Amino acid sequence: MSQFAEPATKESLRAAALAQRDALPAAERQAGAETIAARPFPVNIAPGVIVSGFMPMKSEINPLPLLHKAADQGARLALPAIDKRGKPLIMRAWKFGDPFKAGQWGIREPVPEAPAVDPDILIVPLACFDRAGHRIGYGAGYYDMTINALRAKKKVIAIGIAFAVQEIPRVPATERDERLDLVLTEREAIDFRG
Question: What positions does the entry give for substrate binding (predicted)?
Answer without folding.
Answer: 55, 60
